[in-house]
Amino acid sequence: NSSLFRMDPDVPLIVPEVNPDAIDIYKRKNIIANPNCSTAQLVVALKPLHDYAKITRVVVSTYQSVSGAGKEGMDELFEQSRNIFVGDSADAKKFTKQIAFNVIPHIDSFLDDGYTKEEWKMMVEVKKILDTKIKLTATCVRVPVFVGHSEAVNIEYEREMSAETAQNILREAPGIMLIDKREDGGYTTPVEAAGDDATYVSRVREDPTVENGLAFWCVSDNLRKGAALNAVQIAELLGRRHLKKG
């Protein structure tokens, strides 16, 4: 579940709905890597669309919950919120700035090019899991939500992809729950996604600013699909494909 082996060429980086065949090289080091939480839900949503019309570029902005920073992150959000309500100070300890009633455009360490390591992880992991030809740029933001990562995703394709076609594809895709009514509340937020296994997609629409563009909203429980559930699915996949009863 750590990031240590994810980009090792001899270690498969697996999201079972996306690249199950890649698990076959696991014997090279007897290690299978679980991807970053924000990457996992993104590639589940991208994969069926990419199969229909090749994706060339992705622009993604993430809205990541404090549980991605562990118990300390959740405790800090709770304590700061409580302190603000009673007029006490809301000092930042785990995060670089106050997280309660705020957003922080910074997750993990900064790299020389101005991106953060969290953003870099998304860029390289999507390429390894889905397609090395996809260009991706990310902005990763920590938000005052306890559980559930959200992503605003803009995609460019090689050929035309209508919103209706994308909705039909996503409706039948494994691991995806399409909640997309063009009305008040006709979309999913982290509150509804917390505790569920699905990756939710909402607000599918065509992007008129680029040729063959599409935009959507994606939400998932980062503790489940972003970590624990995906690890269990990898174990089940390994058992089906490689582990025989003795």
Note down, in words, how this protein is organized.
- By secondary structure, the protein is an alpha/beta fold.
- It has 2 domains: 36-65 and 103-226, 2-Layer Sandwich (Dihydrodipicolinate Reductase, domain 2); 70-102, no CATH class.
- Helix content is 31%, strand content 19%.
- The protein has 6 helices and 6 strands.
- The chain has helices at 37-52, 71-86, 117-129, 163-172, 190-193, 224-241, and strands at residues 55-64, 135-142, 149-157, 176-178, 199-207, 213-220.
- A 6-stranded mixed β-sheet has the order 2-1-3-6-5-4.
- A hairpin with a 5-residue loop joins strand 5 (199-207) and strand 6.
- It is globular and about 55 Å long.
- 38% of the residues are buried.
- The mean pLDDT is 97.
Topology:
Elements: H1 37-52, E1 55-64, H2 71-86, H3 117-129, E2 135-142, E3 149-157, H4 163-172, E4 176-178, H5 190-193, E5 199-207, E6 213-220, H6 224-241
Parallel strand pairs: 1-2, 4-5
Antiparallel strand pairs: 1-3, 3-6, 5-6
Which keywords apply here?
246 residues, alpha/beta, Dihydrodipicolinate Reductase, domain 2, 6-stranded mixed beta sheet, 6 helices, 31% helix, 19% strand, globular
